[in-house]
Amino acid sequence: MQVSDQFVRQVKCFDGASRHLGGSHQKTLNDFSMSGQTMAVVHSEHSNDASSDLSVTSDVGTPRTSPVGPRHRWYLPIKSLSDIMCGFLLLLLTSPVILLGVLLVKLSSKGPAFYCQTRCGKNGETFKVIKLRTMIQNAESQTGAVWSQIDDPRITRVGRFLRDSHIDEFPQLINVLLGQMSLVGPRPERPEFVSQFEFDLPVYRNRMDVRPGITGLSQLQLPADSDLESVRIKLLHDLYYIRNASPWLDCRILLFTGWLFGMTFVTAAWKWIRMPDFNQVNGYVESLVGKDSELLAPIKPQLFEETATPYDETAPVRHPK
After folding, report:
1. Measured between alpha carbons, how far is 80 from 73 in angstroms, rounded to an integer?
2. Domain ranges of the chain
3. Average pLDDT taken over every residue of the chain
4. Separation between Cα atoms, residue 168 and residue 75, nearest integer Å
5. H helix runs in 59-74, sequence order
6. Environment class of residue 35 by beta-carbon count within 10 Å: exposed (0-12), middle (13-18) or buried (19+)?
7. 314, CA 20 to 30 Å: which among 91, 101, 116, 304?
8. Sign, CA torsion 148/152/157/163
9. Is 188 helix (H, G, I), strand (E, B) or coil?
10. Measured at the alpha carbon of residue 95, what is the angle toward residues 92 and 98, in degrees to the nearest 5?
11. Residue pair 158/136 in contact by the 8 Å Cβ criterion
């Protein structure tokens, strides 16, 4: 068959591609997926089966090993052992706070106190991450998988405090003890988003070379994901961490996480105990009496000239006795 009788479709390797190209080529796709290279998928233009007459090539002809893997591989087994030991100790220390969070969630909204969500772990294996529920029950029943937004109306009042203080993430220490997560590592992403990110961002799969973490370089340095550009910037930080993971880097991340947690916890607690300010009071009264009420209209101070008695030059001058 001549090349003119074929068409070439350029795709980037990602797990979702195997669904369209057929299971028989799963191994070929997996071999290329780690390289993040562009592949040419060639088949007859008269065929409706995307897996027929498949040939896969890369820009250099053969798959190559990505240079983004961990540089200090000797540290990985030590990291795994320290995760279990430190995770168990931290779970004991935070268990009273977790129980208090469970009580607040149960008293403030309907539904379970814990929220389990599917995430992608090491090598793309899925697991259930455990967190305290901060949103209303079945928050995504109408929208499907979506990012949380600023001032998201689905977040409960107690959930806002738990998120601001990061107490909702304490139960993930259970995932650490189960070997599904690490204390430090890239943020575990949802499978619904991973397929798209792997298609749009080269070497995105490399961030799953290590176990995801409760905290990490990208989590500390950057805000939550809001668009593809924010995901790209976080990917750069994740790849930097994976390549340079070491005891010293992990210690710095954990120390900064502890300091940041203390600051955010105090800030979140202050939001709960502080006195209502003028804007809160004014807005509440406005909801009661209406914004057109005279009570809410500012009263202009009267000038002295308008209120003082006019001076009469013909009036006799009275001298004090």
Report:
1. 12
2. 3-57, 75-273
3. 76
4. 29
5. none
6. buried
7. 304
8. positive
9. coil
10. 155
11. no
Q: DSSP strand E in 136-281: where?
A: 182-184, 213-215
Per-residue b or e along 180-214, where b marks 16 or more CB atoms closer than 10 Å to that residue's CB: bbbbbbbbbbeeeebbebbbebbbbbbbbbbbbbb
Residue among 176, 161, 250, 266 at smallest CA distance from 212: 176
CA distances, 56 to each of 50, 140, 182, 201, 318 (Å) = 12, 38, 36, 20, 111
Q: What angle do CA 68, 70, 75 make, to 5 degrees?
A: 175
Q: Which of 11-15, 45-49, 157-161, 172-176 has the highest mean pLDDT?
A: 172-176
Per the structure block, which two tokens stand in for 240?
């930097």
Identity at 137, one-letter amino acid code: Q
Closest CA to 198 of 238, 218, 228, 220: 228
Distance of alpha carbon 106 from alpha carbon 102, whole angstroms:
6
Residue 118's CB is within 10 A of a number of other CB atoms, namely: 13
Model confidence over 244-298: pLDDT tens digits?
Answer: 999 999 999 999 999 988 888 888 788 778 888 888 888 888 888 887 777 777 8
CA distances, 6 to each of 18, 40, 55, 238, 242 (Å): 21, 12, 12, 40, 41
Tokens 């294996």 found at: 125
CB 239 within 8 A of CB 262: no
Query: Both tokens of residue 54?
Result: 């498949």
